[in-house]
Write a structure and sequence with these properties.
mainly alpha, 5 helices
């Protein structure tokens, strides 16, 4: 069992790739076509299970649970407890931290877009 300080370092570091993968799949242009197809399927499939399955690929919060599960399996990371309960605690803690990271990224991107609009407006006024 790792010391608590090392467990916390793992928590904050392991949440980085989880948030990166979750954000990229659910928001970035590289997966736009697949995401649009999943959106259509999540709205048009006949069964509830099919609709929810495809929705998972459009929601960063939902998708981060599955990315977290993948990382827990490959790293064998546990938080606070050395058994299966440590996996459960680690899973929810990682999802929580990863979603904080994604929220911060969304706010940062929004601020950058706003700055670009303000700069464009200032440049247009200077040209007139």
């Amino acid at each position: 069992m790792m010391e608590i300080s090392l467990q916390l370092i793992w928590l904050f570091v392991l949440a980085v790739p989880i948030s990166c993968i979750s954000w990229t799949v659910t928001h970035e242009e590289v997966f736009r076509e697949a995401r649009e197809w999943c959106v259509k399927c999540s709205q048009n499939k006949k069964t509830l299970i099919q609709r929810k399955f495809f929705y998972l690929f459009t929601c960063e919060y939902c998708f981060s649970h599955y990315v977290t599960l993948f990382f827990l399996i490959i790293t064998d990371y546990k938080l606070l407890l050395p058994d299966w309960k440590g996996f459960i605690i680690a899973g929810f803690a990682l999802v929580f931290i990863a979603n904080i990271y994604m929220s911060l990224l969304a706010l940062l991107r929004q601020a950058i877009k706003k700055e670009k609009v303000v700069i464009a407006e200032i440049e247009n006024k200077q040209q007139d």
